[in-house]
Amino acid sequence: MRTRAAVLNRMGALPPYGHSQPLELCEVELDPPGAGEVLIRMRAAGLCHSDLSVIDGNRPRPLPMVLGHEGAGVVEELGAGVTDLHVGDHVVTAFVPSCGHCPPCTGGRPALCEPALASNSAGTLLSGARRLHRAGMDLHHHLGVSAFAQYATVSRHSLVRVDSTLDFAVAAVFGCAVITGAGAVINTAQLPAERTVAIIGLGGVGLSALLAARHRLASLIVAVDLSPQKLALARDLGATHTFDAADPRIVEAIRDATQGGVEYVFEMAGAARAMDLAYRITRRGGTTVTAGLPHPSAAFSVPHVGIVAEERTIKGSYLGSCVPSRDIPRYIEWFQAGELPVDRLLSTTGPLDSINEGFDRLASGNALRQTVVC
User: Fold this and answer.
1) Tens digit of pLDDT for each residue in 72-128?
2) Is the dihedral of CA 279, 281, 286, 288 positive or negative?
3) 154-198: per-residue pLDDT in tens?
4) Mean pLDDT score of the chain, rounded to an integer?
């Protein structure tokens, strides 16, 4: 079949993206689902910094590629062997498909699935296939999803069935922003109740972490960002203290306000400077968690003695250390009960044709979670 999609042909285009148009909206050819695969009609897709980092070259990927990894849609066709989904089911995409058989998967850590790492890096589906083509040449899949399109063929292992009453734009953010941010708090840090928390970087992931910290009854929540609008929203969502990341005395200010630092700090900005700040405001005996994805060459250093003498813990969190089939429905239940108001994170919704302008808003640092209607 033919479908419209947003194709990235080269990395490193200069902003404004509304002018340089790094994503080309065009018709592409899409194969039907093979064994273990599903054709879905994409209904909404979120714009994420992980997409932007491919556009600007900070996260190199094979090209040309149909971008987009945070999506929600409806099942249109089932490939051979798919028996636990039905045509018409509403689904959310997960950007790490879990094979279920490799050591991380059998050990309960599907975010580290080894075949998924290989296929995501190569720009294929979990099977190794490429189902997207243009003018007789293969196109690559972004993280096994390629959500910036009207239709997508994906692995069954990239999908989680969700409540059909859920708005598609809201459903989409559970596939990346929510499971990454909330998962870092719930799964990676296993945040106990009544602890002090700081979150650096208030995009969709960081604000999801803030909501999860509030859900876990954090006694104090520090929010850090460059955007006054995001800091204001963080206060509305439960932050007890907010700080401008540009303040040259921010470390001292936070340590003074928190009587020596914070027990759990979450770095969600994906920058070495942010990670340095996160470590420096973590109190003795505390835990620093990072879910940000900087350029592969970025490095961050710490005094070795401090890790020992202060009993520090530094943890990475990918996909929120989630089991998507378990955690996405659970977080949706919390949302529906009013305990995780992730709809507050949504800003604008527009057509697929406006996607380059959407990435301008994302790059500006002021936009919250934007979605495109596919």
Assistant:
1) 999 999 999 999 999 999 999 999 999 999 999 999 999 999 999 999 999 999 999
2) negative
3) 999 999 999 999 999 999 999 999 999 999 999 999 999 999 999
4) 97
Q: Torsions phi, psi of 249, nearest 5?
A: -110, 25
Determine phi and psi for 290, rounding to 5 degrees.
Answer: -120, 130
- Mean pLDDT of the 321-341 span: 97
Q: Is 300 exposed, middle or buried (0-12, 13-18, 19+ CB in 10 A)?
A: middle
Contacts of 27 (CB under 8 A, 6+ apart): 2, 3, 4, 5
Can you give the length of the chain in residues? 374
DSSP codes joined into one string, 204-240: HHHHHHHHHHHHTT-SEEEEEES-HHHHHHHHHHT-S
CB-CB contact of 149 with 3 (8 Å) = yes
**To the nearest whole percent, how much of the chain has pLDDT over 70?**
100
Q: Which token pair is 209? A: 């972490």
Q: Give pLDDT, residue 65.
A: 98
pLDDT the model gives residue 10: 97
What distance in Å separates the CA atoms of residue 159 and residue 85, rounded to the nearest whole number? 10
Q: Which residues of 138-170 are buried (b: 16+ CB within 10 A; e: fewer)?
A: ebbbbbbbbbbbbbbbbbbbbbbbbeeebebbb
Radius of gyration of the chain (CA): 20
Q: CA-to-CA distance for 79 and 38, rounded, in angstroms?
A: 6
Give the predicted TM-score (pTM) of the model.
Answer: 0.97
| Residue 320 DSSP symbol | G
Give the pairing type, strands 220-225 and 241-244. Answer: parallel
Q: Give the whole-angstrom CA distance, residue 315 versus residue 32.
A: 40
- 3-class secondary-structure state, position 319: helix
User: How many Å apart are CA 331 and CA 224, to the nearest integer?
Assistant: 24
The predicted model gives 301-329 an average pLDDT of 96
Residue 336 has pLDDT above 90, yes or no: yes
Domains of the chain from N-terminus onward: 2-176+321-373 (3.90.180.10), 190-316 (3.40.50.720)
Token code pair at residue 370: 């934007």
